[in-house]
Design brief:
Layout (H helix, E strand, L loop, with lengths): L5 E3 L12 H11 L2 E4 L9 H8 L5 H9 L4 E2 L2 E2 L11 E4 L19 H9 L1 E4 L3 E6 L31 E2 L8 E7 L2 H12 L4 E9 L6 E5 L2 E3 L8 E3 L8 E10 L3 E8 L6 H8 L8 H4 L15 E9 L5 E5 L4 H9 L18 H27 L1 E2 L2 E2 L28 E3 L7
Parallel strand pairs: 9-16
Antiparallel strand pairs: 1-2, 2-5, 3-4, 3-5, 6-7, 7-9, 8-9, 10-15, 10-16, 11-14, 11-20, 12-13, 14-15, 16-17, 18-19
Length: about 425
């Protein structure tokens, strides 16, 4: 069991209980009670959650009965399953109950030596709180109805000197390679999960995409939702009912007009977000037939596997410093970079730091920038707005002067071009 140390409460084999038969039986039960000191990893969690972590064989109804009958105690006081516990408190647990007939304990799957070696070869960073692995493409993060081989099933090989297997904090698509963070204790898992949910994590992806975006450094702002009829397996742009989704991209290097190598940074964490966004602006990720169709593949020596790689992860560590890890490209991606004549040295662009002053200051800066652009264009609009010696309202040209008024101006290969904005960041020199 992880994160706690059992100690005997009282009594010994040399001491025999005295009194009436009923008192003797109660004394014998008392001799078998168990005590556990709450570890820092379990600080501020619920009692029922503590049992789920450390005593999986004890069902919730048993925990509830123990609490209801006063057999479950915290620092000598009665406690309920929903109460929260603090580090250093002592949990008093009744004696182990006799296993009911027919109830079979859940057995852990044994890993072969090859599986253990494979899992450990994926590790690119290890400390007392975290393990970081470089997941290969084709390996699912978690299992499903038709998935038996997955990263989660290999985590017993990465226990090392810890008391329990590491825990997944986030996930990657099966065909996406790169950085995955594992927490080595329940406390570390809670710490990292909070950073992910608060969007305090910097994630950098590399991708090869079809064609070359007109804007070299842009932000895609397109809401996403599950596509009806796909069983939740596919996402699509849904500007009416979708959840907010933003992604930044930067062109690293182009291979003529055929393709280009881009850096991607998701500002939100929607399912398949980067894949859907790049396909939506007419530049699907190479090898992503699910969202790019037949137009997502290059001919010649370029692999048909998906070219999306989680290159870098930076997150606050429980010890107070930043954990900053990069993962090497998988073989097929590295070979494509070489075959297209791209320079791998150019890949790691400077990571923009968060602008000082907080969200309100950044909002004001963005508004000031937009105002300046409108001001520059105002004179141009006024100049075009004169008809028969009389200016039109607000300097706008008439419909007669705008033969294409009301018609869509988007290119066929960029149906959502209006949602791609120039990123308000300085380009690296």
């Amino acid at each position: 069991m992880s994160g706690f140390d059992p100690t005997a409460e009282s009594g010994s084999d040399e001491e025999s209980p005295q009194g009436s038969p009923k008192e003797q039986m109660q004394a014998l039960k008392t001799l078998d009670v168990r005590q556990f000191t709450v570890s820092p990893d379990d600080d501020d969690i619920r009692v029922d959650r503590w049992f789920k972590r450390h005593m999986e064989d004890v069902p919730f109804n048993i925990v509830s009965r123990w609490a209801r009958t006063g057999q479950l105690r915290l620092d000598g006081k009665r406690v309920s399953p929903g109460d929260r516990i603090q580090a250093g408190q002592v949990m008093r647990v009744p004696p182990q109950e006799i296993e009911r007939p027919g109830r079979v304990a859940k057995a852990k799957s044994d890993l072969s030596q090859d599986q253990i070696d494979f899992a450990r070869e994926l590790v690119i960073h290890k400390d007392k709180a975290a393990i970081v692995v470089n997941k290969p493409p084709g390996l699912a993060t978690q299992g499903g109805s038709k998935t038996t081989t997955h990263l989660d099933g290999l985590l017993d090989a990465l226990t090392y000197d810890a008391k329990s297997r590491p825990k997944l904090v986030h996930r990657l698509d099966k065909d996406t390679s790169g950085v995955i963070l594992l927490a080595r204790s329940p406390g570390a898992a809670a710490f990292f999960s909070k950073r992910f949910s608060g969007r305090d994590v910097r994630k950098v992806y590399w991708a090869l995409v079809m064609g070359v975006p007109e804007i070299a450094d842009g932000v895609i702002d397109l809401p996403l939702s599950k596509q009806p009829g796909s069983g939740g397996e596919k996402m699509h742009v849904d500007e009416e009912n979708g959840q907010s989704a933003k992604s930044r991209y930067r062109i690293i290097e182009r291979a003529g007009n055929r393709a280009c190598w881009v850096e991607l940074q998701p500002h939100t964490g929607r399912t398949h977000q980067l894949r859907v966004h790049m396909a939506a602006i007419g530049h699907p990720i190479v090898g992503d037939g699910k969202y790019g169709g037949k137009d997502a593949f290059l001919t010649g020596t370029i692999s048909r596997k998906m070219h999306l790689h989680a290159r870098r992860l930076r997150i606050e560590h429980p010890d107070g410093h930043n954990l900053d890890v990069t993962a090497d490209l998988p073989t097929h991606f590295a070979e494509s970079i070489d075959n297209l004549g791209l320079d791998l040295i150019l890949g790691d662009l400077p990571l923009d730091e968060k602008k000082p002053g907080g969200k309100m200051v950044r909002k004001q800066q963005a508004k000031a920038h937009a105002k300046m652009i409108r001001k520059d264009k105002r004179g141009e609009r006024r100049g075009r707005g004169e008809t028969d010696g009389k200016p039109t309202k607000a300097g706008k040209p008439t419909k007669r002067e705008r033969p294409n008024a009301g018609k869509a101006t988007h290119k066929k290969n960029m149906p959502h071009k209006a949602k791609v904005k120039q990123a308000l960041h300085k380009k690296p020199k």
